[in-house]
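I hope you will forgive my troubling you with a question about protein structure. I am sending you one protein, given as its amino acid sequence and as whole-number tokens for its backbone shapes. Thank you for your consideration; the sequence and its tokens are set out here:
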Amino acid sequence: MINNEDFLDEIGDNHFSSNAQNPVRQDAFDLSDDEKIEKIKKDVENILQTLGMDLTDDSIKGTPNRVAKMFVKEIFGGLNPTKKPKASTFDNNYKYGEMLVEKNITLYSTCEHHLLPIIGRAHVAYISSGRVIGLSKMNRIVEYYAKRPQVQERLTMQIVQELQKALGTEDVACVIDAKHLCVNSRGIKDIESSTVTSEFGGKFKDPQTRREFLDYIKLETQF
């Protein structure tokens, strides 16, 4: 019979997600960023000391503070709802009625199972039902949901759901192609594999519309 610890390891190694939302506690923001940095700093110090590292060495004495600041201010900054980008939309006055695709959006996230990087590209598209959104806002929405401990399937869904809400339409799609260092650098150590996830809403569920979107992704952009 599999014990609980082995079961949790199996979930992590197989990259399962138990929740469509990030598992954040209700008291997650009771502490200020500075208070979180101080607590995490001590935890990182303990990890390094347990591993036998000499924290008096000039090279790593500042590492606990650097890591703590990086966690709170940078790579997990998307956990903080106050950092959510304002998704301003505008009337589609020029009556553009075709698909708009923002492809090759650089994506940096972190696997919530091993806290190792996820690096890849996101491709996002929508068909306006009367509202349009600034191109850079699409990039910022991808970045916001990526900057947290994540599962790629959930991230893909969150990007689509956020754009659907902002634009007032179901006609939104997202494809993400990314490398997971928890697969590439540990475990099976397969450096060639990548993971592709997709979410198609509204008109993108139609095979012809979906094919048009996927064909746009394949276009090579050279200037």
